[in-house]
Amino acid sequence: MAKRSMWMAKRSMQGLRRWPVAALVGLLSIPPVAAYAAPAVHKRAGSVALPSPRPVAPFAGTSLAGQGLWHATGRLVDGRPVVYETTLEPPQDPGVVAGVAWMDARLLRPTLYSGSLSPGGFGWKYTAPVPASAARTLVAAFNGGFQFPSTDGGYFSEGKLVFPLRVGAASLVIYKDGSAIVGDWGRDATMGPTVVAVRQNLNLLVDHGQAVPGLNPSDIWTWGPTLGGIPNVWRSGLGQTADGALVYVAGPSLTVVDLASLLVRAGAVRAMELDINPYWTVFATY
What we know:
Blueprint: E1 3-4, H1 13-17, E2 24-28, E3 38-43, E4 71-77, E5 80-88, E6 98-103, E7 108-113, H2 132-135, E8 138-142, E9 155-157, E10 160-163, E11 170-175, E12 180-184, E13 195-200, E14 204-207, E15 210-211, E16 233-241, E17 246-254, H3 256-265, E18 268-276, E19 283-285
Parallel strand pairs: 2-3
Antiparallel strand pairs: 1-19, 2-7, 2-8, 3-7, 3-8, 4-5, 5-6, 6-17, 8-19, 9-10, 9-13, 11-12, 11-13, 14-15, 14-18, 16-17, 16-18
């Protein structure tokens, strides 16, 4: 059964199965993890674990008790925790509580699950709903990016190029050996025989360990149309640390500047925005 942290939007398992997300990403304990395409992670055997994450320093001026202190959650892999969670208050909006998840990408294998609405279609091996056989080794799952074509990018999975991949787009790239990167398509990764999935969404939000220039806290369009035309909405993002861990951030009432700041504070050297607005952001552990 999925476990959801209090800082994430609540959903039933039924809701997870019928997600219109631009694909679910899963992290599994077996080889390559759903309505929009999204990632999940399964266990990957035979790899050396990353060191456990160090505490994250809270932003100055924030006072949330216990923020930045990690706690392990979800299934163990090879007898050790592979997913840790904490909370942080963004510096521009004290009082807002965002969640942060850290995932050991050496022991976990991301898999892209196609969405029933986006990219849609038939003949997918990994698609919504996630079958019980996969869920038995599922470690975590989280939402993907925008519905196509709002991503300003492409989608490749299981040998199918559904939407053209754009050079310069922020991309989650998954390889045959179970490794994955978050990066700039064409600079950090290119197509080759070892690439099994590419999920693009807008441009990088964090690059070289810093928020990209020109972010506007009042933006309600460039980084996705917001419900109600307000800049502070539910937002989510995925980044990668210098040692290769994946970090996921989500929270309510976040501007795009808040999201970038949180991803940088969590250690991301490169990061992309995923989906935004209520109902489309979720992180679940198993």
